[in-house]
Design goal:
It contains six helices and 15 strands. It is of the alpha/beta class.
């Protein structure tokens, strides 16, 4: 699929670097230096915005250092961004929102809609304390080139994905396939059908032994269900343009 000037770079697990057609950069779920799959050259990446799906360490483990290198907004569910403010993140750049809401970021020529995800969200402090950080979420990011990217976040399959497709009409998706903590490849294939996307980038697989799903398995289910969905198996650290 031609992404029409959008570049998507997978940094391993569920961390992505998006480059808009205008050349702006967006970091999704900042797990960088602690991420065993993230190439070293991206550990100190500077970006124009950060999107956070939920509060687990494998999604925000490097959020505090990444925030210091972010020139623009840091977006997440209200509970999580409020917590980040108490930890010293510049609250003038935090955009706390909730599911169903949309924010327009004119400086990046994008709009961001928060969608639901069925998953937990918490953070373990250094002393072992577990902090609740609101609910997990996903996003539909609309770019200036008519690409609408559905970032499902960590989630299981749920029927209201069909409404996400009907309401926001995403044409590309990033979805987890690893199983154990999220959807497996079979559920992800059905999710692609419900949302109605033309292409999907699988993530949250291969990082740990428990994550047994693979892109080949997803492709097999897509074929078995006779879905018209392209499985984009991107390489870690290499920009994908379609």
């Amino acid at each position: 699929m031609d992404l029409q000037g959008l570049e998507i770079t997978w940094l391993g697990h569920s961390t992505f670097l998006l480059k808009t057609p205008e050349g702006k950069t967006i970091l999704v779920d900042p797990w960088l230096g602690q991420n065993p799959s993230c190439p070293k050259q991206f550990h100190d990446v500077c970006v124009d915005a950060i999107l956070i799906t939920h509060g687990h360490n494998d999604h925000i483990g490097d959020v505090f250092t990444a925030a210091t290198r972010c020139a623009g907004p840091i977006i997440g569910i209200y509970d999580l961004t409020s917590w980040l403010a108490t930890k010293g993140v510049d609250d003038t750049r935090l955009i706390g929102m909730n599911k169903g809401g949309t924010v327009k970021i004119d400086a990046l020529s994008i709009s961001v809609t928060m969608t639901t995800a069925v998953h937990s969200s918490s953070y373990q402090e250094d002393d072992g304390t577990i902090v609740y950080l609101g609910e997990a979420a996903g996003y539909v990011v609309a770019f200036s080139n008519d690409i609408r990217l559905y970032i499902s976040g960590d989630t299981c399959l749920f029927g209201d994905m069909e409404w996400i497709g009907d309401l926001y009409e995403p044409n590309v998706a990033i979805m987890p396939i690893g199983d154990h903590y999220t959807m497996d490849p079979r559920a992800a294939a059905i999710a692609c059908d419900l949302v109605g996307v033309d292409a999907v980038i699988p993530c949250h697989w291969g990082t740990f032994d428990a994550l047994t799903g693979t892109p080949a398995m997803l492709r097999e289910y897509v074929q078995n269900y006779e879905l018209e969905v392209e499985v984009l198996e991107v390489e870690i650290g290499k920009p994908f343009k379609g």
